[in-house]
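Researcher: Next sequence.
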Amino acid sequence: MNRRKFIKNTSTLGAASMFPFSSFAMDKKIKYKMGYQLFSIRDEMAKDPLGTLRYLKKLGYEDFEIYGFDPVKESYYGFKSNEFKQILDDLNLSVSSGHYGFSSYLEGSNDKLKHFVDKCIIGATTLGSSYVTWPWISPEQRNVENYKLMAHKLNIIGEQVTKAGLGFAYHNHGFEFIDHEGENGFEIIIRETDSSLVKLQMDLYWVMHSSKYTPKELIKQQPGRYVMWHIKDMDKISRDYTELGNGSINYHVILPDPVESGLEFYYLEQGGNFTHNSMRSASDSAFYFKKELRKYL
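Model: Next structure:
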């Protein structure tokens, strides 16, 4: 956690700021399922995935983004892909995207990467997902050479996933916005990937935490490409994660236009720093989102 640029809370918003969504907030056609990134509640998913999904459904979550795919067992949370899909169907829930472990294949052969991507495609297709998403690279991989290599790999994966009838996306954190000799990883990814093959999943928290641009400014540069969002709040003092409504990000002001973004799915998320615990975090964020922000989406 190391940079700047998050929105300042203010009590003197002008009339224009009070109604930033006038162009689309009342468009009844814009409706999305309320989504949750299951990594936010990974401790409970590890203990009781079925009970956790039932709990999240009661809170109003309808759609999820998964993590932790096991390519050897072709399983999620200890269930074979088809078994997990049946659980979702029985609960009338969906998984529209998944975070898959690509970082270990960054510096490996394209053949090994292709084999892994095939496994991801099979799993995602079984779940009825729309997107396979690259979520992360490890700290030792974060340099200019590897960002360029990753852009190349992203294009390769994007072509393979697209041919299989799914979408492929890259999820940002904050490290992509750190300057390396006058450029940063995010700029390299944008510049050197094919926008028709590699879509983007914007983590709004990390953009506000680390980028010199706001979410709206980034979307204006690449309209239609940000097909997914992660929505989470920033602690007012530590700048760590916190429950929606507890932090410093004023989503009434910074939330982008979903149409300009190309938005298809969004997920509330909190990776840690829970005020109470992960279960209460999921509940508190859902309550705030439904009360304050869902009207925009």
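Model: The longest strand covers residues 94-99. Confidence is low (pLDDT under 50) at residues 1-24.
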